[in-house]
Amino acid sequence: MAGPSRLQWEAGRAPDALWWQPDRDAVAPPAAIVQPGPRVPKSFVALARAAACHRSADRWALLYCLLWRLTHGERHLLTQVGNPDVARVNRYAKAVRRDVHKMKAFVRFRTMAEPGFEAPRYVAWFEPEHAVVEYAAGFFQHRFANMRWSILTPDRCAHWEGGGAIWFSPGTDKTAAPAGDVTEEAWRVYYRSIFNPARLKTRAMMSEMPAKYWRNLSEAALIPGLIAGADRDVAAMEAAQSAHDTLRCGATPETPGTALARRAEAAERGSLEQLALRAAGCRRCGLCSPATRTVFGEGPADARIMLVGEQPGDAEGLAGRPFVGRAGRLLDAALADAGLDRRALYLTNTVKHFKFTPKGRRRLHAKPDYDEVRACGPWLEAEIDRVAPDIVVALGATAAAALLERRVSIVRDRGKRIDWHGRCLTLTVHPAFILRSRERRDDEYRRFVADLRAAAAA
Ligand code: URA
Asked: Which residues contact 350 (CB under 8 A, 6 or more apart)?
């Protein structure tokens, strides 16, 4: 509490028994407290320190009144943010803190030769909105601890000698500070280099750096020109960037889609290789997105027997090859038992992508629906046309229904030889069915081998 108000306090004067007159000096620095003062919440001390720097004439009356109320039965007064006095003191403190923030950002030191010293003194001129020099001086003391500096303002001036204690002198005018120095151009170069025209937000910038501070900022002279030329500079940056990209990366890299299309174009027309490359980029149904890879058929282009499964499983989707997982191993064994060499057969699927339902880290098989089977139809047709096998063996109901274009009962039609577009079509179970039939697995396996043997004999 400053001198006269402290005396009033000690005399026990209530706020309405006092009258206040404007400061004779612009600023009344808080005096050191010599006797224990009234006990108040800590938050009031911080608030009062800031609000005391406000320029309004009523600040001392307001602070005295708050102090009185806090110590006369209203200890929690500050929590009532809607109370007019509390709102006012908060407003004052906020304005002061904002002013200090601006001071920290916009003080610009210029060098000034000082007789008797080799190193220059750094002197800044600043015009704060409130009487904040003493309040803010500690910040500059820590930030520029090794320099000798002075911050001059119209109210008060702060000085630091690179050690000891900060000292203050009365306010002065701008002529006391150097008008410019050799660092000036460096500031401007720096500012020009950090100014990014592509991120220019004029309104935000004006609120952060209000025009009233510009007159003391050497770089401010650049601002109108930088704003006016922002569009032109962005265009120049973009042009420079694209030239840079070309230099750095060479030609634009091919996307996987265009690479596939180019390879398909180069492959032998109508060959299985060309079909496989085209199918790899297939987007005819939604299964292509979650699937890892397209699994096209494999085997000799002149194979006499073609086996058609349902769709690749997890292992096949990862490997990009048909029948390499559990069902595939069972099929391999059955083929061998039936006296067939897998390498002489063409193995493919009705649907070329793995359809699954994610469960944790696992991908659980899901049955392809009618539209997905239809979407993949042209690939299977093209494979059959190209390989032109004598015998097509449908493994399971999905393959059989896709080939015969009707619902099929494997139980009823199994083993029959069906005349299908001039070829022989036979139906049997899918190897996964055998894996699933626990007790009857051996029987089912033997029947499966017999079906394959019969197909081979046909
Ligand atoms: N099941 C199929 O139908 N095809 C495969 O490729 C693997 C499992």
From this structure: 308, 309, 310, 311, 368, 373, 376, 380, 398, 399, 402
